[in-house]
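Weekly structure sync, notes
Attendees: PL (lead), two postdocs, one rotation student
Agenda item 3: pending single-chain targets
PL asked that the sequence for the first pending target be pasted directly into the notes so everyone works from the same version. It is reproduced below exactly as submitted, 442 residues in total.
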Amino acid sequence: MRKNTEMFHEASKRMTGGGSAGGRIHKALGAPFYIDHADGSHVFHVDGGDFIDYHCGAGALLFGWNHPGIREAVMKCMDKGFYMNFDSQYTLEFAELFTKLVPTVEKIRLTNSGTEATLAAIRAARAYTKKNLIIKMDGHFHGMHEMIWFNGGCGTNLDEFGETRTVTPAAAGFPQDSEKNVRLIEFNNINAVRHVFEKYRGDIAAIILEPVNYDCGCVPSTAEYMKQVRELCTKEGILLIFDEVISGLRFRPGSAQGFYGVKPDLSTFAKAIANGFSLALVGGKAEIMDMFNPAGPVVCSGTSSGNLMSVMAGIACIKMALEPGFYDKIEEIEKNLCGEIDHLFRKHGIPGHIRSQGAQFAFYFGYDDPRLDYTLSETVKYYSPKQYRNFTRACLAENLYMFDGGGKPFPQHNGFTTAHTEDDIALTITKIDKIFSRLAQR
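Predicted structure, written out during the meeting:
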């Protein structure tokens, strides 16, 4: 990868760390994976080579690269003047379509990123309840801001009730004592929820969670757990916030909240709702959403919020998600791809398995029992980051793009798109069969 290496060398002179974002570095390469262009399910490397993409924009690409319907919407936007800072008939159309797709959301407010959306949701929750504390699940990611970015998901340091003994910022530069506004508990542990609700009764504004924890691989909640959390929140007058930044649009209409049959008070969405264009939102019950300005005292605004290009891309995405058979295709790809890869673990005697949900999946190298996935403290005991590193390096050699962010004791989430073809899947399985054969001999 000569040109890739040269580009990284030059970028390191002018860009911090050599990339436009910290997460651009592929740890198996020690550099970004520079591409020339992308189309459908494939990315094309600057040094040549056509790679089947299974990172998919960190979960943003549900419809594939350069989708013709989204491309058409973007070109129409160009003809309209690709304006921002104005609403239009398209803003209204998007709102109408989205609340049809996710009927538990009564009103929305558009933002540019998932980080902005979760920040706004937490502010609204505090303003609405007039309480301060936020309960967060250890290992769940809700954006890089001081409202909620605490602990990195180590799955340790829990007391006997499932509450994290110490809450620490996930990055440097946080204000002193900012951690006092957040409490962390173990995911999928209803007793931990009961414990903190009782311990901090009268102080809790909201509990926030990913219905499926993709930041630690692919960890779903159980239907019973979600139902009980909803019942406890209702009983205690605590708002329930679903972070569907990744899970949004990935499940049959209604997203994860429709899948689980649970209505949160507030939700946040981003990524796939506009196939990677800068569009996100916070939505929920009308009386809570009316806390946002100009109806209420919570300011949530931005120059580029609801910009025309992102909104028109979003309209195209939601229309496709509402088409009959759309989710049938996703589930068929998941069955063929992930089912076969899971079989390959057993065929080659490699300790591990794959878990998937909503067009996202994760490789759990190191242990066979998928029941351990539900508890992060168990996952980090047995998961093998080294084996995953070896796997991703071998994938690159076979022209399969799996991402390795590195440095975490739990799996990296990958995914697929509706643009992945039967030939893509068949070729991928053949290549992973070959890779697993080599890994098993080490």
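Discussion points:
- The chain has a mean pLDDT of 95.
- The longest helix spans residues 326-347.
Action: rotation student to compare against the earlier draft before next sync.
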